[in-house]
Queue: 2 jobs
Job 1
Amino acid sequence: MPSIGFVVKPERTVSKLNDILSEFEGLDERERFELLAEFSRKLPELPERYKAERDAGLHRVPECRTPVFLWIDLADGRVDLHAYVAPEAPTVVGFVAILLEAFQGATPDQVEAAPNDLLERLGIARRLGMTRLPGLNAVLQRVKSQVRKARIEVAGSK
Amino acid sequence: MAEYAHPEMLVSTEWVDENRAKTDKIRIVESDEDILLYETGHVPEAVKLDWVSDLQDSVVRDYVGRRRFEELCEERGISNDTTVVFYGDKNNWWACYAFWVFKLFGHPNCLVMNGGRKKWEAEKRPMARAVPQYPRGHYKAREPDLSIRAFRDEVLAHMKTRKPLVDVRSPGEYSGELFHMPEYPQEGALRAGHIPGAVNVPWSRAVNEDGTFKSRADLEKLYLQEQRLKANDEVIAYCRIGERSSHTWFVLTYLLGFHRVKNYDGSWTEWGNLVGVPIEKSFAAKK
């Protein structure tokens, strides 16, 4: 098992994400998946205003075989993140719920500082296996790249 | 379902509902893409089998060995004479995959629940979250039945003699187009396209909206008339890692009565990485 005890430098604290990581730390594998299942029951419902775009197939993360849709904006320098995930894929729902809880209201720097091997650090990568990992990793990368893009757009409009 | 070549390999959701309590003779096995789906609720008597952590060896790219297979059957109360009924998400992809692995190890009585999890849920049949426990089974697996599994050298020879190959991936994967789309998954292969001579019949064309298999007439139209395959052809089916193609293997073998179909589980993640093998690409990238 890779160590999941991860502390980022204080000036780049990803505090909510670190809280989540420490929740996973110290659990055995069965408990970690139970916690992931708990997260999957907490994904906020997609706001009404995004549903038409979802139904039109916009904002989908193409790398993930499960339908995952993300809306990412910056409002007053803070990340505003919304998501929809097909309910028949609770593993993906759970991971996206973790991302939402960690990044909603975070600064772009905090999102950028999130570890790219988050699934390993959560201790759920091994059971997922090589064939399921890339899709979930892509969701994290998609959040990061969209936040970067939004930041450039905001900078450009000033 | 009676119209199929081997209708005895399929059972309806209704049949499962009526027979699920006979746990001394029948074991219902759920096999899903999603690792947590079973835990959210399942056919009350069903046990879980994961295609990664249960069926695949974690070091060598291969299935688990005979001993491990025997062990995982016994843990779930499956003996050689148990009738195993498979079902799962994604229109029974993984159910067919697990079914195929059980056939590989020579399990005699395997069935697929037509319509899978989707139909069972849509019909609001009983679901439970409690994991059932069964008395340990007694299992002796056979040597792998290689008449249903193709390896790369065999696929190369098959291709050279122009025998039929069915690529069951999406048209974009088959043509190689997806490889050139930015931000699209590259599926773990260094080259894109398909095995020369392979026809493209996406696996999903064999299922109805409700998750059940299409009628025999529709399937015959698809494979026999459109693709001109014949029931006595030697056919190799492949996809990316052999999961979707085990679904097509099931359709050709049991629903249409083909008797010489193999699944190439190495599939594109092997072929698209092999040095020097021929590849056909029907998509031309803009220069």
Job 2
Amino acid sequence: MGDRKQAREARDDGFQSFVIGRWPRLMRTAFLLTGEQHAAEDLVQSTLEQVFVAWRKVGSADDPEAYVRRVMINAHARKHRRRLKEFLAPKDDSGLVREVADTGDRIAQAEDRNALLKALAQLPPRQREAVVLRYWEDLTEAQTAQAMGCSVGTVKSNAAKGIAKLRAIPGLAEMVTQGGPK
Amino acid sequence: MSADRETNHTMTDTDIALLLADAADEVEIGIAPYQAVIRGGRRRRARRWALATAAALVITGASGTLALAGLRDGNGIEATPAVTQTATQPSTPEERHVYTPQETMLAAGTEKGETWYISVDVWGAPLTKAEAEAQVQAMANRHEDPWDKDSPSALVGKITYFVKRAFGSGDPAFLMGDSASKADAMAGTDLKSGATSLDPKKTDGPQRLVVGQVARTAKAVTCTWKDGSSTVARRVAAGADINSDEATIRPAAGSADNWFVCVAPAGTAYQSAEVTTD
């Protein structure tokens, strides 16, 4: 009985370490996917709850991160697709075009970030997932395909379309040419 | 950057990555809600089991969670489940009941002139993805859908069971179920139960029907009702007669756990259920 209890405690400790260690990164990814603080928290918590259920298997897997990403992308696809535009759709119906910011202005920087989040929200979910996984998570195309449950070709297509739309935002392009947001 | 670096107007892939990183920093990280995750995970695991019921689901045990592996007798000595005692496992999926479940009647009775019974279908564990896919199809033919039907490979190595309730002239209908590996076998005083109305048409009625599973070593389960009275289900041997309205714990073919059914007297409802010594 003692051995089993120790094994369970070790597994629980492993899960706790995993949750605490990965929480910041998962929150950032979820924020880019959902565009909203509470939706991001919900997405990460929901993801980790599912991971907990399967932790006995996931914790001993070679790459638990891959499993977690897959769960998160699936959860995002299910739960957050429809809600995104409610949070982030431009209220003034101005689309993706906005005034070019003064790069020295912190308020303007915040607006730039907001513009990017809004632009992400305007992307179809699969394009958004591809962009976030490729350019924020820095995954390879194969890893992204695994997380999204699709082919590498589909990843390439979605990422290319998504990036093209982001590049079409005049404000963002201008911000980069002037030294970035920071 | 693993992303291919391209140039397009003034924004490179690296620029996009930097902008994303900057935007991601806007989120407030906060403290990881570990305990909430654990609670949610346990609820999620439980909810799966009681999917089709408006049931009060309870999972109890010495540790407050499910047993990890194997079975233990009353002295804490590990005991191998009967289903795995055979030295050689049946080799074909048919012999392992992968495509046809083993059905066991758990309880029966009469309520206001209407007969009812509870049975459980236990599907054997597929060993390969192909077997799992065929099993899901076979389940569908019997109108039994596992939770992992969209990813059959998740069923590999797990038995799947469906508890069904028949009432009056109605066909047996799904009550609750789950997929479980050998490691999920219950031990000690572990108990997993669901309570719901006896008559499936009266889902808002009092939760008088309690169905659950316990370790094979459990000798008795005491179901306590809201009026303070209780019913004790006692263990009987496999194949023992089903006596009308008698509460029992009995084995189910193909299941590593034993199963119990209690029914509250008319006028009261489920309060709690626990493994007891008598």
